[in-house]
Amino acid sequence: MPTSVPIPKAELHLHIEGTLEPELAFALAARNGVTLSHDDTLALRSAFAFQDLQSFLDLYYELMAVLRTERDFEELADAYLARAAAQGVRHAEIFFDPQAHTSRGVPFGTVVEGLGRALDRSVERYGISTRLIMCFLRDQPVVSALATLAEAEPYLGRITGVGLDSAELGNPPGPFREVYERAAALGLHRVAHAGEEGGPEYVTEALDALGVERVDHGRRVLEDPALVARLVREQIPLTLCPLSNVRLRGIDTMEQHPLRDMLDAGLKCTVNSDDPSYFGGYAQDNFDAVRTALGLTEDQERTLARNSFEAAFLEDDEELRTRYLKAVEAHRFQG
Ligand code: HPA
Ligand SMILES: [Zn+2]
User: Domain Adenosine deaminase spans what residues (predicted)?
Assistant: First the structure.
């Protein structure tokens, strides 16, 4: 928990299923009669030592089995919002993975209505405005993504955008072009994970084939100077997740994180928590980790916070964006 007042920020890369803390997982398992393969929260937490993205995803999908009812999804979102508020999050654009639930018999509507119950009270209860982004699983067939988008149509009032996540290597963005074209025609915003484990070519493909407006991760873009020039020119936001990168061993230590070099290059970087229950920290914890390891200045930290609100899908409420940006400028760092 940060000791000083955290800077106001938007969280733009957050998987709601990745906020499932072990205590809540066991409580929901007991309520729903689900048996987990770990004995208790201590044993489960000790399994949070990952080799790579896939070893994390295996546990992430396994633990989701405890989420079954609207109430479960509501409690999950409520728990996240309470923690995020304490870390200075004022606006959250929340990912969820519908196929990971519908494939085990939980209806799309149960997920969205349950999350929606918590999000509807979020401004009043936590002072956090929210948006929902549904992600397609890139390691599942394109036809499944198309069917999921069709299933979402009755709920589009609650959904702001689409994303692409799960195992990246060997699952490039290109094949999802038609899904993204349909999403765009439905008026949805488009983002995609790219360049998390994969190289910069995944980012280029996400821009060209999917027309993404933000890139989730993009950690390795500095390897491609032409791509960097394009991202800087078009000011395409990158939603970086530093603790995630270390925990999934994309980098060995936080000192090696490219964030500072990326800021110096003029890239529109933001800092986010990805799957905070699994990766050891929420939004401000990620800010603290990069500040300490990379020696970020207060100006750089303010830039990250400003970027987060500028990159947010808040075009339907520019007044709110302006209020948030003023709060960023008014923030005073304490020793
Ligand atoms: O960090 C992630 N990467 C890719 N897919 C994911 N799905 C949940 N978290 C992640
Ligand atoms: Zn992610």
Answer: 8-320
